[in-house]
Amino acid sequence: MPLWLNQFMFARNIRVEYESGGQKLPCPLKWLDSFFMRNFTNASVFDDTLPLGDGQIEIGSKVPLSALATAMEDWFQRKGYIPKGSKLILAELS
After folding, report:
1. Alpha-carbon distance values, 8 to 4, 11, 13, 30 (Å)
2. Can you give the three-state secondary structure of the chain, one letter per residue?
């Protein structure tokens, strides 16, 4: 019998992209790890998150997508991953 520990905790699959040169590209796993491992926000609302690969994360049902996008944009801009004023595109996959 398979064990699904995160089956209900990480209920939402999210695609994370940024725009460069007019193209949408998946955020590298390295960037996602730097945000989630650092936990710089001290916001427990982001505890239910799990980076899976380039451009892909899973989040819990109580994680506000817009607040997550804003916090990630801020972090990525401060780290120099994306230019100031750039926007991330976070979309829930069905």
Report:
1. 8, 5, 12, 25
2. CCCCCCCCCCCEEEEEEEEECCEEEECCHHHHHHHHHHCCCCCHHHCCEEEEECCEEEECCCCCHHHHHHHHHHHHHHHCCCCCCCCEEEEEEC
End-to-end alpha carbon distance in the chain: 26
> What Cα–Cα distance (Å) separates residue 55 from each residue in 3, 16, 88, 92?
26, 5, 11, 12
- Tens of pLDDT along 30-86? 999 988 876 555 667 777 888 999 999 999 888 899 999 999 999 999 999 999 888
- Residue type, position 58, single letter: E
Residues belonging to the chain:
94
CB 54 within 8 A of CB 9: no
